[in-house]
Write a structure and sequence with these properties.
Shape: globular
Strand order of the largest sheet: 1-10-11-9-8-5-6-7
CATH superfamily of the largest domain: Vaccinia Virus protein VP39
Number of strands: 11
Structural class: alpha/beta
Distance between the termini: 19 Å
Number of domains: 2
Strand content: 5-15%
Order of helices and strands: EHHHHEHHEEHHHHHEHEHEEHEHHEE
Largest sheet: 8 strands, mixed
CATH class of the largest domain: Alpha Beta
Helix content: 40-55%
CATH topology of the largest domain: Rossmann fold
Amino acid sequence: MTILTANRDRPLPGGKTPEAKVFGQTLASWLHEWFIGHRNRLLASAAFQAFAARNPLTRPIARDRAGTLFAMATGFVHARILYACVELGLFVRLADGPRSVSDIAESCDLPLDSARTLLLAASSLDLLTRTGPDRFGLGELGASVLGNPGLEGMIRHHSVLYRDLVDPVGLLRKPRGSAELSAIWPYAVGSASPDPAAMDRYSRLMGETQAMISGHILDTLDLSATRVLMDVGGGNGAFLAAALARHASLAGHLVDLPGVADLAKARFSAAGLATRTSVTATSFLDGALPSGADAISFVRVLHDHDDPAVMIALRAARAALAPGGRLIIAEPMAGTRGAPAMGHGYFGIYLHAMGTGRPRTARELGAMARAAGFTRVLERATPIPLLVRILVAEV
């Protein structure tokens, strides 16, 4: 566990004055910028690039950097290869074993040459694997996609984002929230009367991708002593249903907008959980949440909202919890070790196109929780931090 709380009133290390600390930070910043400038002038030199490619000591680094740049330049093509495989159902078609090119082409209604082009491209990405001169089967990554239906939903959904990113400069110059992606997520901004079709589309997509996320969260958190878990912005109830299935003594309370709340009620009823659940149809942006829960969770909710809305939600959670209650924040976070591009490199652009929210680091979310009145903010280590990280704060 990583303690994120900080005492801002503690003495500075070594007895330094605040002025000395500021000077030290300024000097460190100047040295850092000087080093970056010197490094970049060197890397931009054609002579140095040629030397680095020839020298046995620097050649691996040069190759790695060249590969990284090539991956950036071609990443859009790779994403569309993945989309084509999903759209054509290739992973499902190959689930029972390898098939011939002609068989795959016929089942996908593709010309033989086009099918071979796609199969070879997908094999180069480890989505498929070539098992013979004219046969292809699932690759490791393709099998992983097959085992995660929610991922297929996200891959299909990304077509909207890609249309917005055809002209990324134009996207950044337009007013935030005017992209095509923002038009299909009115529910995410807490609209009082969102379009029913948009609510259903959003809730289904989030529900499809929630199964694996829920497993990671519930494997990490100990809810055995929790009596009532309130899941705020809980959509169609996928996470809360998973939590109740895991803990037989747990009761659940879901809070979400009207319409979405009805979807959750239907899920709970179908799963035989109606007697253990209650549902409140409201927006947490109204600034009030029902009382009675001893834990309140926000699962992949806060990063969809701008800072003022997040503070409203956190203060409402603090007011609804009695002493000893816990706040649970579970979502992908910026600054995740091993996945630096996931935060601002993906969610930053996605949420900009969506028109609301921003990626936040664990430290930023911890500071916001403390500002809302919570104490002792801790991070719980999850199996795959790229997918979800967890902060727990106490009243």
